[in-house]
Design brief:
This protein is of the alpha/beta class and 263 residues long. It folds into 2 domains: 153 residues, Rossmann fold (3-Layer(aba) Sandwich); 95 residues, Orthogonal Bundle (6-phosphogluconate dehydrogenase C-terminal fold), CATH 1.10.3660. Helices cover 42% and strands 14% of the residues. The strands form 2 sheets. A 6-stranded parallel sheet has the order 3-2-1-4-5-6, sandwiched between helices. A 3-stranded mixed sheet has the order 7-8-9. Strand 4, helix 2 and strand 5 form a beta-alpha-beta unit. Helix 4 crosses helix 7.
């Protein structure tokens, strides 16, 4: 039986807990200052003391991104070299090329929600999603598969640049789009505006952390978007229609009927 530690019981950590608690291959250990009592419904091994995960084979750090490095340094004082430790952060620049006494693996589940906290967690959150990893590991791979996700190896040096394009800038634009819409326009807004601004309900601390820690890549991506808009103005009507059609066709092939990326 593999012993799994989960530090932090927000959306990601609690979703891991709920997805695996009935799996007989795993024994789960949880640590959270605010939600450890909620986890007792799923495992008897839950505490606000981080030492509860000291004997685990693999540990997922699911705290707020701003607390990840601090948590890693704390774990470094008592874990051994055989222990696997994974983060789930959407920004990697402060975690790249770090050396610890344990086996640290950068990872990032490409799943989430505009909602946060234990109550927002869902045992099916990871089903069909890609789970980014920097290197192969059999234990980690099996857990990811048991969560219903797909291990997907990438160069983590490119991670923040890619996430700026498909996550961070879209989230910030969602806020800005809502903020630039007049009160009269908001009164008549329907499903298109609702779907486009869904991310404007994302936890504000998370959005601030995204922008602060990945500002360079976000601004580069925004500049590319601005260039696209300027290029659009110079196209003929036929060229505009051709562009819109090409993008629509590519977008239509990107997700399955359950909304999962199939590229």
């Amino acid at each position: 039986m593999v012993k799994i530690g989960i530090i932090g019981l927000g959306l990601i950590g609690a979703s891991i807990l709920k997805a695996l608690h009935n799996n007989k291959n795993y024994e789960l250990f949880c640590c959270s200052k605010s939600s450890f009592k909620n986890a007792l419904k799923y495992t008897k091994n839950s505490s606000d003391d981080i030492k509860i995960i000291s004997k685990c084979d693999i540990i997922f750090i699911c705290t707020k991104a701003s607390k990840t490095l601090e948590t890693l340094e704390k774990l470094n004082t008592f874990l051994n070299k055989k222990t696997i430790v994974c983060d789930v952060c959407s920004i990697k620049k402060d975690l790249l090329n770090k050396n610890f006494n344990f086996n640290f693996i950068l990872s990032h589940p490409m799943a989430g929600s505009e909602k946060s906290g234990f109550s927002a967690s869902n045992k099916n959150l990871f089903k069909g999603c890609k789970w980014l990893i920097e290197k192969e590991n059999k234990i980690l791979k099996n857990i990811i598969l048991d969560l219903g996700a797909k291990p997907y190896k990438i160069d983590m040096n490119k991670h923040d640049e890619m996430c700026a394009q498909i996550s961070h800038l879209p989230t910030i634009l969602s806020f800005l789009l809502f903020n630039t819409s007049s009160k009269d326009a908001l009164k008549i807004a329907s499903s298109g505006f609702r779907d486009t601004t869904r991310l404007a309900m994302t936890e504000c601390d998370l959005v601030f952390s995204m922008y602060k820690n990945n500002e360079k890549n976000i601004l580069i991506t925004f500049k590319n978007l601005e260039n696209e808009l300027n290029n659009l103005k110079n196209l003929s009507d036929d060229e505009k229609i051709k562009l819109f059609k090409a993008v629509a066709e590519k977008r239509a092939k990107m997700y399955d009927n359950n909304g999962k990326n199939i590229l």
